[in-house]
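Record format v2
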Amino acid sequence: MLQKKFGEDVSRAPIAQRGQKVEKSEGEGIGANIKVTIDGKELRVPVGTTILDAAKQLGIRIPTLCYHEDLCVAGVCRVCVVEVEGQRTLQASCAYHVTQPVAVQTHTRKVRHARRHVIDLLLSRHYGNCYACGRNNNCELQALAKEYGVDFFRFGHLEQPLHVEDHSSHSVFRDMNKCVLCRRCVRTCIDFQEVGVYEAAHRSEETKIETFVDKPLADVVCINCGQCINRCPTAALRANDQTDDVWAAIDDPTKHVVMQTAPSPRAGIGECFGLEPGHPLTFQLNTALRLAGFDKIFDTNFAADLTIIEEGTELLQRLYAALVLKDASTALPMFTSCSPGWVKYIEHFYQEYLPHLSSCKSPQQMFGSLIKTYYAQKNNIDPASIVNVALMPCSAKKFECNRPEMCASGFKDVNYGLTTRECAKMLSEAGIDLPKMTKSDFDDPFGTATGSGVIFGATGGVMEAALRTVVELVTGVKVENFFDHADIIPVRGFEGIKYAEIPVKEVGLVPDLVKHLFQDWNWLKGAAIKVGVCHGTSYAKKVLEDIKAGGRFSECHFIEFMACPGGCLGGGGQPIPTSPAIRAARAKAIYSEDRAYSVRKSHENPAILQVYNEFLTDGPCGHKSHELLHTHYIPRGKFIP
Amino acid sequence: MMLIPENEVLKQELKGVAERYDNKRSALMPMLQMVQSRHSRISEFAMQVIADMLDIHPVEVHGVVSFYSFLNSEPKGRFIIRLCRTISCSMQNKDRVARQLENDLGIEFGQTTGDGKFTLEWTNCLGHCDEGPALLVNDKIHVKLTPEKVHDILEECRSTFGLHAAQKKEGGNH
């Protein structure tokens, strides 16, 4: 279940449309459970439960289309209609909240005919052929048509497209010819993420899902998070497909194609090959990608570890400036900057808070610039011939690698950001059955990674990784002494907003790594590091409003923000479908991977220390690292001129 | 005299309406109607200002503006002529009136004349089924239309549009 705990007015949807999360109640009498009879089976459910939820509990399937577990109720598609005794008309079971005993029939003649009719009508305005479609075999409309045995177009079929495809965005590709007006993207964007790109415009048969005055997606305030893609039942919304470009690079013998894989796609890609969610295929993927033709496979976790060192140092620098130098201009709390969706969100909606954003690039971009500088030098490869591909759970990464400032190496640091789905498609094109692959390790020189890098994929992961490192750097004591197995539980979990305090009771010696920046830690003694974690931009908005109002998050030192619900594992490039249960399974996979690593703290990663010894010789947050690993942001604002 | 940019004037006007409704979402329709009546269109700028004041998304404002026929974001003619197309008016020869309108104005339904004076549109029932065909010129209803009457209506519009007409109207308001 998606938990919305912080704050009261959690949803912008009208009360009647909000997902009613009903507590289990016991006993009889008013306000207690109500008898629901579905297809003759009886069940007692709390007041407010929908017929659909009750049917699920009984194991009775009611088909749905516009309904989505993450979103508020719309009740627009009418596919889930059922017959309720005493009601003249059919009722949408997803929107019918039980308030008195009801008897329901889910597959009477009337219901079956109505559903088939609805599906026929949806198909009559749905342009395209299934075999020439990006969502073939993973399309909810197609599945419904099969379920109801549609074998001809009763109301005709569009012969010509009605709308122009929108290729303007680096991340999201829109083809409104495939839209069935379920409004999932509208509810995702307005209510779930609170970004507000789409809305149903016009009226009646002219209704169309539009952006603000129907502008191209690249021109409106879109953060590229891709949550709409994950929830679109058809192929109306897809991530921009770059597999052809990547294949072209692989086929070109003059190119050195380097792939970096992030932890979340590795935890999710099995779903594209028929596995249950929660089966990480990290090392099988290495073998598979080599078979597909990539020259080197690196682990983005290396760059995640690097991010932790850089970001942790930056945090300590800011704390030093604020606490010791009493520099009032220091922007605290510091915000994480790993999530490109979140970065674009703050650039648009809260540009006055941009100084709070850590100047560190995301792991993808850090790795990109290191591969084209450090790795290229070390191996005598012309950086111009390197093609950097990043396997990411994210559609916003496609935008991020195209940002003009992301050229620190003198070339485009990361050439292509691939989503998990695109990678699965490439592997299936190459005839590779991923789950059957043998395991193999990552390539040197970045081979080893740590558990801290892995948990970047889950919400709270960046914070946990940063705390593991910062606590040890400052106290000189193993973090296991404070937290069992170095599992910092307070920052884990799927609550929208989390808050924790880590007291610094004792301080140790300054480690060599940051000796050039700090002489001692005495100024931190007795302080408490206050941290916050939030995921999903609707929660980010609440945290930022809290900071604006001077609430408790304004006193935090470090806050992790992720644009997508659940963190990267729920990203817009992950396998479709998504639901709270699927995201929880992926998180479990990620945390179990973390436990399996022998080195679980970023600053203990030998490859990191090697990079600082050999290449970034002026240390974390030094001149060279600023050149390659840090960036700046653009105040974009939300007004479209 | 201080010059105030047009956009600032619009912002002030909108602020007044929003405050009357406590800056709540329910202020949306009154704000839109105010902009529509004063500026005869709701610009992209106005939509974004409204969204900002009510803490909603501009696209939601766009959704509402595009939903209602009497709100428009693109400029339309000074006189918007809406002819009823529903069944009673059809039975009373609305087609002949329509043809006359098209011929006199030189445009088809859904279009605006080159001089920006007239826009021709269809509408559904105006509630004057007993005296059809009926049409609306902006807010004014005309009933029992014949092709001959179309000419008079258009002439009346032309004679009330222009500098003198505007002054006369402002004088009338005071």
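Chain B touches chain A through 14 residues (CB under 8 Å).
The beta strands of chain B are 79-84, 118-123, 135-137, 140-142.
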